[in-house]
């Protein structure tokens, strides 16, 4: 049985609030990619939601936020797509459901919420002038003003460029780890649908404490820490940090870059899973050179397929499989 339009709208709201289960996320992404109309609907709804998500201070602010949200939805040119929101009781139900989620998940304590929506990245400047680049589908929570401690919470993926301040330590909390920062640049990835959490240090130094086991590790530049959520185990690798952090830039430039490094960066850039487990080491070491601007991931993979021996396909869960 096909899901109704209101079912998909609820999934979209859950996605934007980072409150969606992996199976629901895959179902939503499959629906989004099923047609151009679905994709446009998703993008428009996400843009309106993002614009209305500025600062939460009390319930009145949330009610006002909801009013603005629905008013903007009504004013869009594609009114026929959003007519059910304005004309049916579903709007009221969706509003009440959304308020319950906000109240449970985000207490009204003057915290600011920033959301990077589907297929977009967002740069956030924190109160201490530190800079955060949020990848698509990520959520960052931080106080309006930092006091003696600078603490933020992340769901999803973000690159941090933290301003040095010896008197006020900076920390990032995810579902699995707490990262203590000493004025540095690093990447953190902790998505609900992924079996692992990872952090990659580009410059400086960070201390990482695993919440479940209490294990503490000190990381150095060009190290990657991978935490297996199921096994509660950690692994530290030596990597080229740029392969994991370049997604935040305006464009990507590859010059004699091994395909394996290209796949890693494409995965971050397009916020999509790319599996290359069955590829030969010879293929993964093949150097390629090109510049990535506004091309789709399909375009890039087709080009790579034409100049190398790789083949690729999409799985039912939208994972790209390289062979």
What is this structure's SSE topology?
Layout: H1 5-16, H2 22-32, H3 36-52, H4 59-75, H5 79-87, H6 90-105, E1 111-116, E2 122-125, E3 131-134, E4 138-143, E5 150-161, E6 170-173, E7 177-181, E8 185-190, E9 196-203, E10 206-210, E11 216-219, E12 223-228, E13 233-238, H7 242-245, E14 252-258, H8 259-270, E15 274-275, H9 281-284, E16 287-292, H10 297-307, E17 312-314, E18 320-322
Helix pairs in contact: 1-2, 3-4, 4-5, 4-6
Number of helices: 10
Looking at the structure, the CATH topology of the largest domain is Jelly Rolls
CATH architectural category of the largest domain = Sandwich
Whole-number mean pLDDT: 79
**What is the count of β-strands?**
18
Beta-strand residue fraction: 25-35%
Described by strand count, sense and barrel closure, the largest sheet is: 13 strands, mixed
Note the gap between the termini: 34 Å
The CATH class label of the largest domain is Mainly Beta
Overall number of structural domains: 3
Helix content: 25-40%
Radius of gyration using CA atoms only: 21 Å
Shape: globular
**Low-confidence stretches at least 5 residues in length (pLDDT < 50)?**
54-60, 77-110
Order of helices and strands: HHHHHHEEEEEEEEEEEEEHEHEHEHEE
Structural class category: alpha+beta
Describe the structure.
- With 323 residues, this protein is α+β, with helices and mostly antiparallel strands.
- It folds into 3 domains: 6-100, no CATH class; 110-240, Jelly Rolls, CATH 2.60.120; 248-320, Phage tail protein beta-alpha-beta fold, CATH 3.55.50.30.
- Helices cover 35% and strands 30% of the residues.
- It is built from 10 helices and 18 strands.
- It has helices at 5-16, 22-32, 36-52, 59-75, 79-87, 90-105, 242-245, 259-270, 281-284, 297-307; strands at 111-116, 122-125, 131-134, 138-143, 150-161, 170-173, 177-181, 185-190, 196-203, 206-210, 216-219, 223-228, 233-238, 252-258, 274-275, 287-292, 312-314, 320-322.
- The strands form 3 sheets. Strands 1, 2, 3, 4, 5, 6, 7, 8, 9, 10, 11, 12 and 13 form a 13-stranded mixed sheet that branches. A 3-stranded mixed sheet has the order 15-18-17. It has a two-stranded antiparallel sheet with strand order 14-16.
- A hairpin with a 5-residue loop joins β17 (312-314) and β18 (320-322).
- It holds the Pfam family FecR.
């Amino acid at each position: 049985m096909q899901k109704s339009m209101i079912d998909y709208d609820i999934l979209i709201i859950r996605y934007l609030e980072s409150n969606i289960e992996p199976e629901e996320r895959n179902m939503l992404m499959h629906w989004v990619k099923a047609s151009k109309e679905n994709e446009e609907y998703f993008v428009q709804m996400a843009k309106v939601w993002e614009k209305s998500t500025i600062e939460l201070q009390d319930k009145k602010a949330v009610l006002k936020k909801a009013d603005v949200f629905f008013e903007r939805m009504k004013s869009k040119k594609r009114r026929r797509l959003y007519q059910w929101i304005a004309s049916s009781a579903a709007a009221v139900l969706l509003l009440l459901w959304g308020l319950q989620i906000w109240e449970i998940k985000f207490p009204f304590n003057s915290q600011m919420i920033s959301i990077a929506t589907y297929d977009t990245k967002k740069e956030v400047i924190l109160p201490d002038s530190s800079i955060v680049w949020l990848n698509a589908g990520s959520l960052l929570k931080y106080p309006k003003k930092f006091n003696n401690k600078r603490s933020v919470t992340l769901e999803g993926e973000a690159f941090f460029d933290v301003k040095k301040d010896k008197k006020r330590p900076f920390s990032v909390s995810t579902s699995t780890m707490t990262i203590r920062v000493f004025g540095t640049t690093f990447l953190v990835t902790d998505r609900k649908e992924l079996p692992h959490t990872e952090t990659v240090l580009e410059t400086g130094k960070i201390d990482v404490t695993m919440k479940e086991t209490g294990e503490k590790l000190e990381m150095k530049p060009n190290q990657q820490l991978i935490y297996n959520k199921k096994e509660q185990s950690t692994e530290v690798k030596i990597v080229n940090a740029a392969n994991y952090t370049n997604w935040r830039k305006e464009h990507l430039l590859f010059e004699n870059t091994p395909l394996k490094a290209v796949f890693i960066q494409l995965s971050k850039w397009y916020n999509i899973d790319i599996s290359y487990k069955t590829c030969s080491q010879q293929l993964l070491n093949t150097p390629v050179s090109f510049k990535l601007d506004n091309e789709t991931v399909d375009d890039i993979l087709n080009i790579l397929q034409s100049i190398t021996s790789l083949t690729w396909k999409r799985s039912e869960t939208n994972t790209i499989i390289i062979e």
